[in-house]
Amino acid sequence: MTQHETIGVIGAGAWGTALAQMLASDGRDVVLWAYEPEVVQAINAEHRNPLYLPSASLAPTIRATGELGDLTGIDTLLVVTPAQVLGKVLASLPRPPRDLVLCSKGIEAGSGRLMNDVAREASPGSAIAVLSGPTFAHEVAAGMPTAVTLACGGGAEQWERLAPAIARPAFRPYYSDDVTGAEIGGAVKNVLAIACGVVDGLGLGQNARAALIARGFSEMLRFGEALGAQTETLTGLCGLGDLVLTCSSASSRNFALGKALGEGASAADLMADRRTVAEGAHTAPVLADLAEQRGVPMPIVAAVNAILGGASAREIVAELLSRPLRAELESDAGDIGA
Ligand SMILES: NC(=O)C1=CN([C@@H]2O[C@H](COP(=O)(O)OP(=O)(O)OC[C@H]3O[C@@H](n4cnc5c(N)ncnc54)[C@H](O)[C@@H]3O)[C@@H](O)[C@H]2O)C=CC1
Ligand SMILES: O=C(CO)COP(=O)(O)O
Where along this sequence does the record place binding of NAD(+) (predicted)? Predict the structure, then answer.
């Protein structure tokens, strides 16, 4: 039997646990770092993660640990913490690994940095890749077919190392070298998924949701262009693909958060004491600031930010609908003077 390299996964929420299970599906050893001691205990004793992914039975070759030092000597580490703690967790690694594959979706509050910039500083010398796409954790854990963008900052040479380590029969990575684009797709779609949830919660119908997806995608493209992302990256799995998935299903925590807001729940109540992460709620304020600083119009992102800040969802949607009529494409704006 082929001797596979051991892979490490940092973060045993729903997504880290699902990725560990997918990676272990060829019989390889996976070391999974978990933040909570009870998660370490449950995975090692019962091969389950009742806190974050109760539906999955986990492979016995997944070994959980609470010690980041246990990842020392593993060349490939997938990083799957919430975005806001990624830098802190990586800075606690005793030694930077050869390859870091970032799977978290968000922008750092305060600094406005994408995760690859955060990781570069926290883990100097590691080659950085970004894995992102339409990937509900429970489906990946169940072995259902899934495709992702694997954007390799280390180019084709890094892809040659990572693709065989990560691909499985039902898990297909597609190569890209656009790390910035892959990250922007995942971060922005979370905020747009909240918007679609709000529209659903308000009962505004499927036409409105489709309009939000299309106009939200324009915002993603504009922001991506301002930050140097390739448009083609954002039209792929990690942009449009993930946007369509999370804007259409209450399996998305971001969509579900938006739906509850649309139904009238208060943002403060919904965010208090929540165990699972809805990254869009953390990304919206920093994304709205970045867009404003760079002069990128992102009215849907601004609307989500306002609702998360306590504004009435119904009033904010009414404001969005009363904006002046304009050209759909910026390239046509000059024709009608708008
Ligand atoms: N769940 C999914 O289907 C997918 C999630 N993602 C992304 O993966 C990242 C992680 O999300 P999930 O695994 O879903 O999380 P989750 O919502 O299932 O669990 C929360 C996670 O945060 C960890 N955590 C809480 N406080 C922490 C701290 N101070 N330090 C370190 N870890 C802490 C918990 O241990 C747990 O791993 C997010 O950025 C998310 O956007 C990406 C693709 C799919
Ligand atoms: O990113 C995801 C699927 O690709 C998961 O979305 P949620 O974080 O909204 O559940």
Answer: 11-16, 137, 253
Backbone angle region of 146, left / alpha / beta, with phi > 0 → left and psi within -120 to 50 → alpha: beta
Which ligand has the nearest atom to the CA of 106? 1
Q: Residue 203 in 3-state DSSP?
A: coil
List the one residue out of 78, 31, 39 whose CA is nearest residue 59. 31
Q: Would the CB of 89 count as within 6 Å of ligand 1?
A: yes
CATH number at residue 297: 1.10.1040.10
Tell me how many domains the chain contains.
Answer: 2
Binding site as annotated, residues: 11-16, 52, 105, 133, 135, 137, 189, 242, 252-254, 277, 279
**pLDDT at res. 2:** 57
Instruction: Give phi and psi for 250, each to the nearest 5.
Output: -75, 0
Q: Known catalytic residue: 88?
A: no
pLDDT-flagged residues of the chain (< 70): 1-2
pLDDT in tens, 90-146: 999 999 999 999 999 999 999 999 999 999 999 999 999 999 999 999 999 999 999
CA–CA gap between residue 243 and residue 259 (Å, rounded) = 16
Which ligand gives the minimal distance to the CA of 92? 1
* Nearest of 116, 113, 186, 118 to residue 149 by alpha carbon: 186
Measured from the CB, is residue 15 less than 6 Å from ligand 1? Answer: yes
What is the DSSP secondary structure assignment for residue 309, as one 8-state letter?
T
Q: Which residue range is the domain that position 257 belongs to?
A: 187-322
Q: What is the pLDDT of residue 330?
A: 87
Q: Which parts are annotated binding residues for substrate?
A: 105, 253-254
**Sign of the Cα pseudo-torsion (203, 204, 207, 210, in order):** negative
**Sequence-ordered list of residues with C-beta below 8 angstroms from that of 223, at least 6 positions apart, any chain:** 184, 188, 287, 290, 291, 294, 296, 298
Asked if the structure places residue 165 within a domain, the reply is yes
pTM exceeds 0.95 for this model: yes
| ipTM surpassing 0.95 | yes
Tokens found for residue 322: 């009363």
Among the candidates 177, 197, 224, a domain finishes at 177
Give the H or E element holding residue 9: strand 7-10
